[in-house]
């Protein structure tokens, strides 16, 4: 039997969200600060820059996490890679290379506790069942999820979406019934949720951090002509068509992938580049 003392009752560790097996703890202050960094820690606290951690309370259940995200486990908790042979490994390595996620996402199962590493990013617990056919995530958002969820790679509907939208050719998509843990550059309270019903949404820059898998994503001229796009100063915009939802970050937070000029940055880390080298590196690091 496992008991966790000085956690739930710790005044400096506050549970700010809970869904399914996942609980999000927020450190109210950094209690172990050296004198020379005290002023920095003070202003970080005032600006809501705080450490956050996710505790998974497993009760004969299983979760899938980013590789290296585990901080500690307690109880009868076992892990497995989920890799079924060499072919499956290279398939997962290819998937990781094009989505900027870890090649292998370990599965932890059993009865006990799993604590994930602290992060300064904001943690969002999202019920994937509310997204219909699934949710498409911006690169680097995935942290963990119920193992029952399916994770797949989805490709852009046209090459222009990758070359002009700063989003890459591929993204990770989650579908099924369960909870996903996302590392967001902005808090959930700041995200604008746009519901689309057989309509169109156009966004100047890659400010959408997640959207329904049912939406068609393209990159198009902001005006009907190239001259019009140049004159209005917007150039190309990300366009989402169909029926579904979009999570939109309304501010140019440095934590997002937006550039300082309010537009898509030059993506020199496009997901479609360096796939073979990424796969080989994954094999050597295994």
Keywords:
286 residues; alpha+beta; Double-stranded beta-helix; eight-stranded antiparallel beta sheet
Could you characterize what this model shows?
The protein is α+β, with helices and mostly antiparallel strands. It has a single domain (13-264), classed as Double-stranded beta-helix (4-Layer Sandwich). 16% of the residues lie in helices and 41% in strands. It contains 5 helices and 15 strands. Strands 1, 2, 3, 4, 5, 6, 8 and 11 form an 8-stranded antiparallel β-sheet that branches. Strands 7, 9, 10, 12, 13, 14 and 15 form a 7-stranded antiparallel β-sheet that branches. Helix 2 (86-99) crosses helix 5. The radius of gyration is 20 Å and the shape is globular. Residues 85-90, 226-233 and 254-286 have low confidence and may be disordered.
């Amino acid at each position: 039997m496992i008991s966790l003392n000085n956690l739930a009752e710790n005044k400096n560790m506050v549970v700010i969200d809970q869904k399914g097996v996942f609980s999000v703890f927020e450190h109210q202050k950094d209690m172990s600060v050296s004198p020379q960094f005290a002023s920095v820690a003070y202003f970080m606290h005032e600006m809501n820059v705080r450490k956050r951690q996710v505790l998974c309370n497993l009760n004969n259940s299983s979760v899938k996490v980013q590789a290296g995200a585990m901080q500690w486990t307690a109880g009868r908790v076992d892990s497995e890679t989920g890799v079924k042979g060499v072919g499956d490994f290279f398939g997962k390595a290819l998937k990781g290379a094009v989505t900027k996620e870890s090649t292998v996402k370990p599965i932890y199962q059993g009865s006990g506790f799993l604590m994930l590493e602290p992060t300064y990013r904001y943690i969002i617990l999202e019920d994937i069942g509310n997204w219909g056919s699934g949710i498409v995530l911006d690169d680097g958002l995935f942290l963990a999820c119920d193992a029952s969820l399916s994770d797949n790679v989805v490709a852009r509907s046209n090459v222009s979406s990758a070359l002009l939208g700063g989003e890459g050719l591929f993204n990770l998509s989650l579908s099924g019934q369960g909870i996903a843990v996302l590392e967001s550059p902005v808090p959930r309270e700041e995200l604008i949720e746009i519901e689309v019903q057989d309509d169109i949404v156009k966004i100047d820059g890659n400010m959408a951090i997640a959207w329904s898998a049912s939406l068609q994503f393209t990159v198009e001229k902001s005006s009907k002509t190239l001259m019009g796009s140049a004159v209005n100063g917007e150039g190309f915009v990300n366009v989402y068509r169909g029926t579904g939802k979009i999570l939109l970050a309304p501010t140019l937070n440095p934590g997002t992938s937006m550039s300082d000029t309010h537009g898509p940055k030059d993506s020199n880390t496009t997901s479609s580049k360096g796939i073979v080298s990424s796969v080989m590196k994954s094999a050597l690091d295994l």
